[in-house]
User: Fold this.
Amino acid sequence: MKLQLALDLVNIPDAIKLVKEVEAFIDIVEIGTPIVINEGLHAVKAIKEAFPNLLVLADLKIMDAGGYEVMKASEAGANIITVLGASSDATIKGAVEEARKHGNSILVDMINVQDLEKRAIEIDALGVDYICVHTGYDSQAAGQSPFEELRTVKRVVKNAKTAVAGGIKLSTLPEVIQAKPDLIIIGGGITSQDDKAGVAAEIRQLINQG
Ligand SMILES: O=C([C@H](O)CO)[C@H](O)[C@H](O)COP(=O)(O)O
Assistant:
């Protein structure tokens, strides 16, 4: 199980400062959608240059023009790029094809997909690297969590790795670990804590214990 730190509500200098605090405990840094909106792909480039040994995920949530947008993110230094599960098969196939040219990976974000089981099976056949269940901020605010959806994708996905995101914190991590996803994505559960390094270390320890 790998750990991805999601950075969403920071600018580039604060993102670098934050990653420095926890870099020993994480595998992947996510440049979240809000950062990309604020700073563009420069944020991906800056983080990759500052932390060449960490994998960088660009959370573009691509919905169309899969090949082109994956190309631009790859040129900026991203190792993993996100595409929405609700996008067309053609978009997902284009994204995968382009990612392969750069030795990169595609994570499909299943946020708000209505028939999760059916779409996960379809997407699993398209050769993507990760299928990620995700309860977005707005659904988290309405009291939702991604744990049941994680169990669904773990049951039906046979080829891709599985990932989970959406409000995960230290107290809910054991339930997530029990389902054994390949990738656990945590944003606010680390970034909004006073002792970020301490919490990240505890999270890493729990994940390592599996
Ligand atoms: O993808 C995300 C969200 O849609 C904002 O872009 C977050 O990175 C993801 O939800 C993880 O963050 P937390 O929910 O704070 O753990």
Remarks:
- The chain is about 45% helix and 20% strand.
- The chain has a mean pLDDT of 98.
- The pocket of LJD2ZHX5 is lined by residues 6, 8, 30, 32-34, 59, 136-137, 165-168, 185-189 (CB under 6 Å).
